[in-house]
Specification:
With 88 residues, this protein is of the alpha/beta class. It has helices at 12-19, 36-39, 42-46, 62-66, 70-87, and strands at 2-5, 27-30, 56-59. Helix content is 45%, strand content 14%.
């Protein structure tokens, strides 16, 4: 399981790892203050070797919405989905 998010997900990797059995590996990347484009960017995703068996959890968009860029949130999610769909 890969967890990527902004500061709202701080500590979540450890907490989720504690709830799951030892069969699961949980790793994450927390980027405080980041917008969704930085959280879901290709460079970040390429940092992890993902397979079809992996679970990717992301949290973001709060900073975008706060800065009146809510449309950007939808666009980034669609862009991310298209990138992942082409890869797998």
């Amino acid at each position: 399981m890969v967890i990527i998010g902004n500061n709202h997900f701080k500590g979540s990797v450890l907490r989720i790892g504690n709830y799951l059995s030892a069969k699961f590996e949980v790793c994450g990347l927390i980027k405080p203050g980041a917008g969704l484009e930085n959280i879901l960017g290709k460079t970040v995703i390429d940092s992890f070797t993902l397979t079809k068996n992996d679970v990717l959890v992301f949290s973001g968009g709060v900073n975008d919405v706060y800065n009146n860029n809510s449309k950007q949130v939808i666009l980034q999610i669609v862009k991310f989905y298209r990138t992942i769909a082409q890869t797998y």
